[in-house]
Amino acid sequence: MSWIEIVVEVARAQAENFSDALMELGALSVSVEDADEGTDAEQPLFGEPGMEPKEAAWERSRVIALTPTDFNHAELVELAAAHCKMPVPEHSLRSVADQDWVRLTQSQFEPMLIGKGIWVVPSWHSAPDPTAIVLELDPGLAFGTGSHPTTRLCMEWLEENPPLDKTVLDYGCGSGILAIVAKKLGAGQVEGIDIDPQAVVSAEFNAVRNHCEIDFSLPNKVTTSTYDVVVANILSNPLKLMAPMLSAKVAAGGALVLSGVLARQADEVTAAYAPFIALSVWQERDGWVALHGRRPS
Ligand SMILES: C[S@@+](CC[C@H](N)C(=O)[O-])C[C@H]1O[C@@H](n2cnc3c(N)ncnc32)[C@H](O)[C@@H]1O
């Protein structure tokens, strides 16, 4: 089976309504991208919790609707335009050939070497070096496959500072990748927390699959525990807000490692933690940094 993509350019103000109308009228899926992508007029949109981008679309937005082949494509565009009370925009059609989507997706995830000797290996591959530290992890609904520089920075910090027999808290655990690597590097008790229930489920699944005993939970579990190592790869805004709480989770003499912070945000995050723990940049990668510091003994 194959499909047809309808491609339409609309102004920013119409992108969301037009996309919704296409979906209501029978499109199988709709995506919106910057029509100026790859040119000098390209407009990156960045957001993070509490700082969502003001504009949810681009000055010139390209709306792409996936439809069956036996569909009246011109009529769909006309009806969607009428629904949005806008002139009928020009459209073009692109044929999408059927593919082995599972194989195609899997081919994009190869085993990854992180740091000096940590392999992240999808289940459909065997580990290139079974004697190394191997995490079996498939891309899923939670963030944390090891491909993002912030995850890699935290994993590399843990590899360089092995938490042997130490207690570790992974705050914002996503897939659980950092908690699992900590456990595989010899940590004692390891816990993970995430605000997203789906992440907790994924992390629990991944821990079992990697034969690691780790306790994952939502943030509402109230404890006064402190940990020898606290690692949090979230984003600068929530990290700043959580500075008193996260710092209090670090045991005397323990280490705090933060990532999800852009290099240009390092000073403001360091300032938020200064009353509790002196942080400094450990390493920078692709514009992201990992910050670290120790609570005085
Ligand atoms: C960038 S992902 C990091 C995932 C994984 N630890 C890694 O390093 O790849 C950030 C995670 O933090 C979680 N998160 C965001 N805000 C949070 C909060 N206030 N409390 C706990 N978790 C939070 C998100 O749900 C997400 O799973």
From TrEMBL:
Catalytic activity, reaction form: L-lysyl-[protein] + 3 S-adenosyl-L-methionine = N(6),N(6),N(6)-trimethyl-L-lysyl-[protein] + 3 S-adenosyl-L-homocysteine + 3 H(+)
Localization, UniProt: Cytoplasm
One GO cellular component term: cytosol
Enzyme class (EC, first level): transferase
Annotated Pfam families: PrmA
Keywords associated with the record: Cytoplasm, Methyltransferase, Ribonucleoprotein, Ribosomal protein, S-adenosyl-L-methionine, Transferase
Gene Ontology biological process terms from the UniProt entry: methylation
EC number of this enzyme: 2.1.1.-
Cross-referenced InterPro entries: Ribosomal_L11_MeTrfase_PrmA (IPR050078), Ribosomal_PrmA_MeTrfase (IPR004498), SAM-dependent_MTases_sf (IPR029063)
Record field: transmembrane: none
Binding site for S-adenosyl-L-methionine: 151, 172, 194, 233
Major localization listed first in the record, in broad terms: cytoplasm
Alphabetical list of Gene3D superfamilies matching this protein: Vaccinia Virus protein VP39
GO molecular function (one): protein-lysine N-methyltransferase activity
Protein purpose: Methylates ribosomal protein L11.
HAMAP family reported in the protein's UniProt record: Methyltr_PrmA (MF_00735)
Record family assignment: Belongs to the methyltransferase superfamily. PrmA family.
Protein name: Ribosomal protein L11 methyltransferase
Organism of derivation: Solimicrobium silvestre
Protein's gene: prmA
